[in-house]
Amino acid sequence: MSKSVESVAMKKYELVAGDCLRAPDRTLYRIRALRDFGDVRRRDLGGYIENESALAHDGHAWVQDGASVWAERQRRRKRAN
Question: 19-43 burial string, b = 16+ CB within 10 Å, else e?
């Protein structure tokens, strides 16, 4: 199996581009299960995440419908000398 096909086969969810929540500083995408795991079934819709770093593809963790996950952004201010 090629690496690209293997990596797709290992993913447990995909981001649904047509179903998102938009805010001025971020976009959250709904997730859809690509395979069965834990209590989640293939094609189940979950909640919303900002990007794939917010939810691992291994294990049984899942963001339930109605929930949202994102990272707070830290802004650094340049110190005046």
Answer: eeeeeeeeebbbbebbeebeebeee
The domain total for the chain is: 1
pLDDT band for 1, please (50, 70, 90 cuts).
very low
Tens digit of each residue's pLDDT (9 = 90 or more) over 8-58: 568 999 999 899 999 888 999 999 999 999 999 999 999 999 999 999 999
Q: How far is CA 10 from CA 18, 56, 66, 80, in A?
A: 23, 11, 25, 48
pTM, entire model:
0.77
Q: Which domain holds residue 7?
A: 3-53
Q: Judge whether 38 lies within some domain.
A: yes
Of 59, 55, 54, 16, the C-alpha closest to 37 is 59
